């Protein structure tokens, strides 16, 4: 006998993906309405006495959009030394890293106009390899220019195929700004089409994000700033985040005026909606029951970093909580624009007191240090449904699915 959670509502809370801050930060969007996490460039470092310090990173930055040709970077040996110094800091902060933008090379760390020839093939390959070695396992690197990625891997990699290419996404810091996105892509139309197709395919494997920019330095300064542009290309490239503060007047302000900004915010990254959860009505303590979960991802991207799926059983008489991990379910498999149906065994621990339990579904942070912090649990986009006793439980960081499981 199965108990059904019913069909969950489609409407829900928007999932944030617009990132306020310095140009091009990689932010971790953990859950709608929850802390967005720390930016990768604001690294946490434990200090004596239990306090925390935020080391500052000093860069030589251009004075404006078009005055970048004279920007200075460091010699290759110094860059590699700095990357090596970052490795223990990155390891200590792996739980709050979404993606790491490569940086270090040229103006704004965008891997162009290097004063030390760091964009030559050998130098950029050595920097890439050093960054991948320094980055905690399972975290992604982002680079600025598609041709570099295509030179390393002419065919787009597959999801988790074990290659270096499968760990590297793109941050397009002139997204939508001109026909070439101000030099992101080639000025040759056929080459540009191949590059764009590559980046679109790569977005299924590694994260894509960035910011818009002022097209003043473009050969063809014609921005694609209408709602139809961001809605089409946001989906096409699997947009996970976008700088919220730049370059607003040609992009964000137009999306607001044309009425699509709320949809853009909802769509960036992943957006999980629970369609149904069905489970055995009665299970004996120490035994397993059946569970079937149906989830739709209405966002533009998959989840890239690990995340757990737990069933919580709340004992009705006492409120005692039983947490059951569903290790066979990986939310990273819930692809954008699809509905996923997964089955699992619901293993009730031996010694669980008999009685009626309310069922909740939780998606806690995948990092052990944050798994118990409900602020970092993913909140499904479903609206509360009082008639079905469905809704978000703030205290538990879990969604009440409105069903009952009896333990014998």
From TrEMBL:
Any Pfam family hit: DUF4832
InterPro entries membership: DUF4832, DUF4874
Residue ranges annotated for the DUF4874 domain, each copy included: 69-147
Superkingdom field: Bacteria
DUF4832 domain span: 167-382
Name of the protein in its database record: DUF4832 domain-containing protein
Organism name: Massilia oculi
């Amino acid at each position: 006998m199965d108990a059904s959670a019913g069909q969950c509502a489609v409407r829900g809370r928007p999932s944030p993906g617009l990132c306020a801050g310095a140009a091009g930060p990689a932010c971790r969007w953990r859950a709608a309405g929850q802390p967005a996490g720390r930016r990768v460039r604001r690294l946490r470092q434990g200090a004596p006495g239990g306090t925390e310090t935020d080391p500052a990173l000093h860069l030589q930055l251009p004075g404006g959009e078009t005055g970048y040709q004279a920007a200075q970077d460091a010699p290759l040996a110094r860059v590699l030394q700095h990357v090596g110094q970052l490795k223990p800091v990155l390891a200590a902060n792996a739980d709050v890293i979404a993606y790491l933008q490569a940086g270090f090379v040229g103006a704004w760390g965008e891997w162009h106009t290097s004063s030390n020839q760091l964009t030559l093939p050998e130098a950029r390959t050595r920097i890439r390899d050093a960054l991948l070695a320094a980055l905690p396992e399972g975290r992604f690197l982002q680079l600025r220019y598609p041709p570099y990625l295509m030179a390393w891997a002419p065919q787009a990699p597959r999801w988790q195929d074990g290659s270096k290419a499968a760990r590297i996404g793109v941050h397009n810091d002139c997204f939508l700004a001109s026909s070439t996105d101000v030099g992101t892509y080639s000025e040759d139309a056929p080459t540009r089409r191949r590059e764009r197709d590559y980046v679109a395919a790569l977005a299924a494997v590694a994260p894509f994000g960035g910011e818009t920019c002022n097209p003043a330095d473009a050969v063809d300064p014609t921005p694609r700033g209408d709602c139809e542009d961001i809605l089409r290309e946001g989906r096409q490239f699997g947009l996970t985040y976008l700088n919220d503060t730049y370059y607003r007047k040609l992009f964000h302000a137009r999306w607001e005026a044309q009425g699509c900004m709320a949809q853009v915010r909802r769509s960036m990254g992943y957006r999980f909606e629970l369609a149904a959860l069905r489970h055995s009505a009665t299970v004996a303590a120490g035994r397993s029951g059946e569970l079937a979960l149906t989830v739709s991802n209405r966002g533009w991207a998959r989840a890239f970093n690990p995340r757990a799926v737990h069933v919580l059983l709340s004992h009705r008489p006492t409120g005692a909580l039983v947490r059951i991990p569903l290790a066979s379910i990986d939310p990273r498999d819930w692809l954008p624009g699809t509905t996923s149906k997964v089955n699992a065994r619901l293993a009730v621990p031996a010694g669980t007191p008999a009685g009626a339990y309310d069922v909740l579904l939780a998606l806690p942070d995948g990092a052990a240090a944050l798994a118990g912090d409900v602020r970092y649990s993913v909140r499904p986009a479903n609206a509360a449904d009082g008639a079905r006793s469905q809704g978000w439980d703030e205290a538990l960081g879990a969604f009440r699915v409105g069903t009952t499981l009896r333990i014998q």
